[in-house]
Design goal:
This protein has 260 residues and is α+β, with helices and mostly antiparallel strands. The protein has one domain. 48% of the residues lie in helices and 23% in strands. α1 packs antiparallel against α2. It is elongated and about 125 Å long. The C terminus is likely disordered.
Length: 260
């Protein structure tokens, strides 16, 4: 389109110079001005369209990633309590609402072992004791976990959730899980050419492949396929929490010193 406009401008310029009398040259001059405005608009749009695409894409993806993080955290807590993952979505929500996690301490005790023949030996044994329980719900305060399986921006669409096992070493099967949703539906209505490129992207600072996902059925991981830029919000929240905790500790220390 831009090349055609440039060729048209060159053609008009040649016509002006060779064939038009001076008194009629204002007509093609206006045409050239309009062409220049059109070219400027197309060039600007060509520069801004990928930028706007990326900005809109990140906005849509960020909401999707947030829900995947909640699903990941729920699966991890379920694994801590049960030793496996689940693909039952209703069960996972109910688990957050009502389950309790055991708080344990590990200690080493010395036991005397009879070796026979009057010979005894002392060995150290690690013992795990349950000291209390805490609700799983405390880890999901302020999170919209009842709707974590709904894909933001896509009405009536839920994440695919699967579980499996991976043989980490011979004879040892380790549970795995994966939650995902296709990118294509999230990018509906955007530039088709840029969407096609996005579905094929493999750059390390982008979400690779055709899906946004967390976990894997092929390897033991609870990581997502998004780059670190999507985790900046979490880091800022954690940083603020640590800062508040430190300030609180200092304040307590100062009060104790004052009372002394």
């Amino acid at each position: 389109m831009i090349l055609a406009a440039v060729l048209a401008a060159v053609f008009i310029a040649i016509v002006i110079v060779r064939y038009l009398p001076l008194k009629l040259r204002w007509i093609p001059s206006i045409l050239l001005l309009l062409l220049a405005i059109f070219l400027g608009f197309k060039i600007y749009n060509g520069i801004m369209e990928p930028i706007n695409f990326n900005q809109n894409k990140v906005k849509r993806y960020s909401k999707v990633v947030e829900n995947l993080k909640i699903i990941r955290d729920a699966e991890v807590k379920f694994y801590e309590a049960n030793g496996n993952y689940t693909q039952d979505k209703a069960l996972l929500i109910k688990f957050i609402d009502s389950a309790q996690l055991a708080l344990t301490v590990t200690k080493t005790i010395v036991e005397t072992v009879n070796r026979g023949g009057g010979i005894t030996d002392e060995i150290e044994v690690r013992v795990i004791d349950t000291i209390d329980y805490e609700p799983v719900l405390k880890y999901f305060k302020g999170k919209d976990y009842p709707n974590m399986f709904s894909v933001p921006g896509l009405e009536g669409v839920e994440y695919d959730l699967e579980i499996g096992t991976v043989e980490k070493v011979q004879g040892l099967l380790v549970p795995t899980f994966m939650a995902k949703t296709p990118k294509k539906a999230l990018l509906e209505g955007m530039n088709a050419s840029l969407v096609k490129q996005e579905l094929e992207v493999m750059a390390s600072d982008q979400i690779k492949g055709e899906n946004i996902s967390v976990g894997s059925l092929d390897e033991v991981t609870t990581a997502g396929n998004w780059p670190p830029s999507y985790d900046k919000k979490d880091k800022n929240v954690n940083s603020s929490s640590k800062s508040s905790s430190t300030s609180s500790s200092k304040s307590t220390s100062s009060n104790n010193d004052a009372s002394l």
